[in-house]
Amino acid sequence: MPDNYFANYLPLLIHFLVAGALASAFVLLSRIIGYRKPTRAKMSPYECGMTPVGDARERFSVKFYLVAMLFILFDVEAVFLYPWAIILRQLKMFGFWEMLVYIAIVLVGFWYIWKKGALDWGIGVTSPQHAKFARAGGPAGRSQR
């Protein structure tokens, strides 16, 4: 290993140190010279115009997280279209057919999650036991407020 191997990373280290120093300086300066006049509206948990109601530690449906993960998944897959679009002329027909196969695979995945009901927000009854539980006032049968 050459002796100056770590010297190649010195500009990166300097960059991180300068970025950290600038970020710290901005936070410190805003704390020192910033104008602070706390009011009841400013100190409320949510400053969005609506009065907060209920507990903030409420449980959310798994559907929220599932839809978020699916959005990220399909968003990342859509990002792969941009580099392909840039070099499409160089790839000619091979690149075109290759991307059609890629899009077909993405659409099959989208069709699968659609048919599985991952994008449905309504309460779906899948079995007679679940239907009886829902009619009896179980978690699926309670009205949302």
Q: Would you kindly provide a written description of the structure presented here, covering whatever features stand out?
A:
This protein has a domain at 62-120. The chain is 59% helix and 0% strand. The chain contains 5 helices and no strands. The chain has helices at 10-33, 62-79, 81-86, 88-116, 128-135. The longest helix is centred in the last third of the chain and has 29 residues, at 88-116. It is flat, with a radius of gyration of 27 Å.
Binned strand content: under 5%
Residues in helix, %: 55-70%
In total, the number of strands is: 0
The Cα radius of gyration reads 27 Å
Please specify the SSE layout and strand pairing.
Elements: H1 10-33, H2 62-79, H3 81-86, H4 88-116, H5 128-135
What's a concise summary of this model?
The chain is built from five helices and no strands. With about 140 residues, the protein is mostly helical.
Keywords:
mainly alpha; 5 helices; 59% helix
